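G., before I forget:
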Amino acid sequence: MLNNVLDPELNLDRVFHALADPGRRRMLERLSEGPASVSELGKPLDMSLAAVLQHVQILEGSGLVQSRKLGRTRTCSLNAPTLRSAERWISERRTFVERRLDKLGEYLASTTEDQEENP
Amino acid sequence: MLNNVLDPELNLDRVFHALADPGRRRMLERLSEGPASVSELGKPLDMSLAAVLQHVQILEGSGLVQSRKLGRTRTCSLNAPTLRSAERWISERRTFVERRLDKLGEYLASTTEDQEENP
């Protein structure tokens, strides 16, 4: 995961790619309630264990999930800071647009007032 | 875009897929500052107009961007509500995890206090 730390851009590619699959989003929803084993993650999804493992690997590669093997069970947990970095990228863009639209609204309101005062 | 409205899950697939590319994120960053033509969007990116158009199509398909053709110029703008729906999905998961960790912290703190009181 060293690459992710060194290159936040590459990491965002991986995070958003990981989020683009409905099965992986279900897994993250499950993990937001608490850690779970790989087989627990797969249970509600109609897919083979091999497919589940592949999804888990993509989630781990993005840094959204971390896992630990204890005996024969691999337990996964959600990594909130990675989630936060993706959220921040989106919210910064959104705030930017909304602020711009607010200013535009104020400007339009002020010109309308001007017109009403000096028709 | 009717499909997107009818199936928010499919839409999240498309939105996160659209966000997973660094070139498309650059375009969205540019659009957060205000509307831009397709060629303006492509300028800072080292790619052909055909490639830029393909990216714009993916952005439009996700609902993140909308465009209007006026004469020979297609002008794109960012669609804040779609950005917000992606942000909401992430922030809901993040809030869930953080609340759970807070509760765990409180629980651990209370058991430590108990131990200190009754060593």
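The first strand of chain B starts at residue 36 and ends at 37. The beta strands of chain B are 36-37, 65-70, 73-78.

More on Monday.
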